[in-house]
Amino acid sequence: MAFSVHAIEGLNYEDFRRGVVFLRCDQDSGINAEAVFRALKAKDQNRMRDKFEHWMRGNDGPAHWFHGFDDEERKHCFVFKRRQLHTHYRYYGFLTHPQPNTDPEYWLCVLANHGQKNTEATDPVETNFVNALRVQLDVIAAVQRGFPDQ
Amino acid sequence: MPHYTSQNQNVFIERIIADFIGQIAQRLESSSMSQSEFADRLDVSESEVSQVLNLNRMNLTLKKMAQFAFGLGMKFAVVAYDDHDPYNDRGPVGSEIFNQCWEISGRPRNVVSTTNLQNSMLSVTGSGYGWMNNTLADPCSTVGNLRIPTHLLSQSEKATTAYART
């Protein structure tokens, strides 16, 4: 399958030591984070951009905007959140150092899938999906193409 | 690619409000107060607090911002700055930068004590704070441009400064 990573329009990628991108794969409908984001109203997109850049600037909270996971199984997973009334919207991704030689401290969050639910707890199906993508060779190659290392 | 907050002033203002709410939400999370206790303290509904913290209500007035900050034992500042980015291609500087610079410089309360700031700035160069090094290395940075004229420093301060520069 053909994977690629794409910058989020309007974000500042130059000033920070962290970045957020979308994973794209036309052959896998489960990789839908970017499509869901693009379908949001402009105002809601900007609220998500606020949260993306809040993390990119080095903040590690608030947890009801985004967070990682402490347990070993999901330690590379990351989620950005949106809530409207009683519905929770989740953008799941994984964390990686895309340039271990050029910039070993740079963190990249590759967002892949989107989930919608009525409870706060994370559905393990979503994080399992992300974990499986994270180690897929085609996905690793896509990240390397987007963030070439030495 | 221009920054998303360069679309118009409203988008920029909403981003500044989101930044403020992020600070409030982080403070609330690190406190022992629940969202409903916080709402009680502010004398507003829990639903209103939830809407604000989830960025679903962005029309905060300065009065409302003061209410939220004071409710958590905090104050807030409105800072105008020139980051040499008149078309806003890079977006606003995050509040955590101003906050951390103020903390690192010993929480000065007046301009005179910003001499502490200069010494702090010199001593942190080369430290482990990547964001700090970037800020200090940037000649366009507001913090990087803060310089105390040498003739205003005492002899001992001049000596310290000279030593620190080497």
What is the average per-residue confidence, as pLDDT of chain A, rounded to a whole number? 95
Whole-number tally of structural domains of chain A? 1
Q: What proportion strand of chain B?
A: under 5%
Shape of chain B: flat
N-to-C series of helices and strands of chain A: EEHHEEEEHH
Radius of gyration of chain A, CA atoms, in whole angstroms: 14 Å
Distance between the termini of chain A: 25 Å
Largest sheet of chain B: none
> How much is the radius of gyration of chain B in Å?
19 Å
Main β-sheet of chain A, in a few words? 6 strands, mixed
In terms of structural class, how would the helical and strand content of chain A be classed?
alpha+beta
Number of strands of chain A: 6
How many domains comprise the coordinates of chain B? Answer: 2
Specify the number of helices of chain A: 4
- Helical residue percent band of chain B: 40-55%
Report the total helices of chain B.
8
Biggest interface between chains: A-B, 29 and 28 residues
Main-sheet strand order of chain A equals 1-2-6-5-4-3
How is this fold's topology laid out?
The complex is a heterodimer of chains A (150) and B (166).
Chain A (H helix, E strand, L loop, with lengths): L3 E4 L10 E7 L8 H7 L2 H15 L9 E3 L8 E8 L2 E10 L10 E11 L6 H11 L2 H10 L4
Parallel strand pairs in A: 2-6
Antiparallel strand pairs in A: 1-2, 3-4, 4-5, 5-6
Chain B lengths: L8 H22 L4 H8 L3 H8 L8 H10 L23 H10 L9 H11 L5 H8 L17 H11 L1
